[in-house]
Every structure is written in C-alpha cells, then in structure tokens.
Design brief:
The model has no long low-confidence stretch (mean pLDDT about 90). The chain is α/β, with parallel strands linked by helices. The chain has a six-stranded mixed β-sheet with strand order 6-7-8-3-9-10, sandwiched between helices. Helix content is about 40%, strand content about 25%. The protein has two domains: about 140 residues, P-loop containing nucleotide triphosphate hydrolases (Rossmann fold), CATH 3.40.50; about 80 residues, no CATH class. The longest helix is centred in the last third of the chain and has 16 residues. Strand 7, helix 7 and strand 8 form a beta-alpha-beta unit. Helix 3 packs across helix 4 and helix 5 crosses helix 6. It contains ten helices and ten strands. Bound molecules: adenosine-5'-diphosphate.
Length: about 250
C-alpha cells in the first residue's frame, strides 16, 4: 500500500496576541489526496492557524511547508500561486457584481474585462457556468451577489475558489450559517472533487460534518493538536471528549 505523503506540515508553529497563545508550538501534518479536517472548540486556535498557513497573518515562530517547500511568511498571493486555494469564513464575494462576474474575476481580472467588453473567452465563461451548475446556483448567474442568501453566497465563494483549479483547497467553516440541505450539497461536491484529485483541508466547528467527510482529522485544543487520526480514532479519544465536553 502507498504511504500517504504530506501536503502541508507545520513545525512548532506559534502565534500569540498579547498574552494569548492562540497557536502554541503546533506541529501537524495533513495528507496529500485526502479530505483533511481540523476541528476544536471555540477559541482553540483554528482560525489563527488557518491564517498563519495562508499568509494572512505572520506567525511568531515555527515553520509551514507546502509539499515540502518552506512557505513560512510568504504573502497570500504567492501561497495561492503555489497551489493553495482558500475560502474565507465570512464571505468575500463582490456584492455589486453578478454571480457570473464574481466567477470570472476569480480566475484573472482581465477575464472579466474581456467578458464585459464583449470579447469574452468562451472557454472561461463556459467553465464558470459549469462550476455554477456544480455548486447549484447556475440559475442565479445574473443576480448581484448581494441579493443571494448567506448560504448561496458561500456556494458562490466555494465556486469562485475552485475556478482557478487549485490542487489543494482550504475551507474555513464551509458549513457555518448554512442550512442542512446546502451543507449536504457542499459535502457531496467536496467528495466528488476529492475523487477527481483535489486535496482538502476543512476547518470546522461542526463536528458532524468533519466526522462524516474527513479521512484524516486533527483536533486542536488551546492552540495545539491533542489528537490525530480517522473519525473512529478521534471519537473514542478521551482527550477529545474532555476538550469538547469538559468531562
Ligand atoms: P478558533 O478559530 O478555534 O475559534 P481563534 O484562532 O479564533 O480560535 O482564537 C484563538 C485564541 O486567540 C482565542 O483566545 C482568541 O480570543 C485569540 N485571538 C484570535 N485572534 C485574535 C486577535 N486578532 N487579537 C487578540 N486575540 C485574538
């Protein structure tokens, strides 16, 4: 059997805010080709970890490796170009652009200019429409993003993240504030894309989603991993129950 290789590894990653050790010497590995999950109680450092890895904030110490390449303190756009696509916990769509325009601007800004100027690149527009159909909002292509429901905006953001075909996608709370039927749609899509070769890291507070979707799960508590493994292993780990339930 093939040995799973790392897509993302951190070594003693640390970030403090004042006296708060938000991420505290966290050494973790996420696996290539898998649906990876990062869970933990509120305040356990998941978002800070996510932001350190994606370059949104600079860690105080420690390192981040993407496919064996040191990306510590790289700027976000450079990390994106190295193949890490990401979504935001709070949606970052352009509210006054249409749904289709949001998809086109996600690839390359000039794609949108070409489209609006009438000299559109048909393949890109077709790809955008196909992706909108996959996330289930193709009927809304001419609606302005601000008129979408919160769940639909999250689907648009997921679709626009996927437009650049990133081999590795990090999703920050994809289920947060989304109704159960849309959560199920997101879960199915993540599984399909993973079957097609995309690696995922899903950062979630929603334990159910992570447990049913992820092959490899890391549990954070107080800024560092307390358990790592499959859903079965995680669910029966007393440290996890203690962190979540305080038992
Ligand atoms: P999670 O995403 O797991 O809920 P966070 O990474 O948001 O956890 O927070 C971890 C800890 O760091 C919390 O105690 C939080 O209050 C603190 N923290 C996070 N961001 C900041 C910030 N910008 N300034 C001060 N404290 C912060």
């Amino acid at each position: 059997t093939a040995v799973a290789t790392s897509i993302l590894t951190t070594d003693r990653l640390t970030k403090s805010f004042g006296g708060v050790h938000a991420v505290n010497e966290a050494s973790v590995t996420f696996l290539d080709g898998k649906i990876n999950g990062l869970i933990g109680p509120n305040g356990s450092g998941k978002t800070t970890f996510f932001n350190c890895v994606t370059g949104m904030i600079k860690p105080d110490s420690g390192s981040v490796q993407l496919r064996g390449r040191d990306i510590t303190r790289w700027a976000p756009h450079k990390i994106a170009r190295a193949g890490l696509g990401r979504s935001f916990q709070l949606c970052r769509t352009f509210p006054r652009m249409t749904v289709l325009e949001n998809m086109l601007v996600a690839v390359q800004p000039h794609t949108l200019g070409d489209y609006l100027g009438g000299s559109h690149a048909p393949s890109t527009v077709e790809r955008a429409r196909a992706m909108l159909a996959r996330v289930g909002i193709d009927h809304l292509e001419n609606a302005e993003a601000r008129d979408l429901s919160y769940g639909q905006q999250k689907l648009l953001e997921l679709g626009s993240t996927l437009m650049s075909d990133p081999p590795f996608v990090m999703l920050d709370e994809p289920a947060g504030g989304v109704n159960p039927s849309l959560i199920e749609r997101i879960a199915v899509l993540i599984r399909e894309l993973n079957d097609e070769g995309t690696t995922f890291l899903i950062v979630e507070h929603n334990m159910d989603l992570i447990m049913k979707l992820c092959d490899h799960i890391v549990v954070f508590d107080r800024g560092a991993p307390i358990a790592t493994g499959t859903a079965d292993v995680i669910q029966s780990d007393p440290r996890v129950l203690e962190a979540y339930l305080g038992v």
